[in-house]
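Weekly structure sync, notes
Attendees: PL (lead), two postdocs, one rotation student
Agenda item 3: pending single-chain targets
PL asked that the sequence for the first pending target be pasted directly into the notes so everyone works from the same version. It is reproduced below exactly as submitted, 148 residues in total.
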Amino acid sequence: MATPRTIRRLAFQALYQLDAVQDPEPECIRASIDIEPDLKKTDIDKALQLARLAYEFRAEADRAVAELAPEWPTHRQPAVDRALLRLAYFEMTRTSTPPKAAVAEAVKLAKEFSTEKSPSFMNAILDKLLKKVLASRPTGQPLGEAES
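Predicted structure, written out during the meeting:
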């Protein structure tokens, strides 16, 4: 069974591809990501579904980031950073992933895949977003549960 980190890394790679290519074929996306030989099909499908959903909510994520960093609109962000921000936003707002874990994982992926300045950029934006997400949760709602 793949770890959440492995699934997230694959989802990020697929999301990057979804953003780069107009209406890509699912098999092209699958072929373009770095799939480890021992991964199960269900894990790969889970990563691809996460990417598709994050892509579906990209406009919402882009608005949230633009509100927090108006000097860095989507078109000015490196494509890797844009994909990571969209994925983290989706995980923080629409999944059961603990928001703090989504932030930490996005920063780690930025260290691995993006520029030397990207991790601090990610951390600054996502920390502001984390505060908004946590402030908007009903009192007593566990951190790992996203609102429906």
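Discussion points:
- The mean pLDDT is 89.
- The helical segments are 4-20, 26-32, 41-56, 58-68, 79-94, 99-113, 118-136.
Action: rotation student to compare against the earlier draft before next sync.
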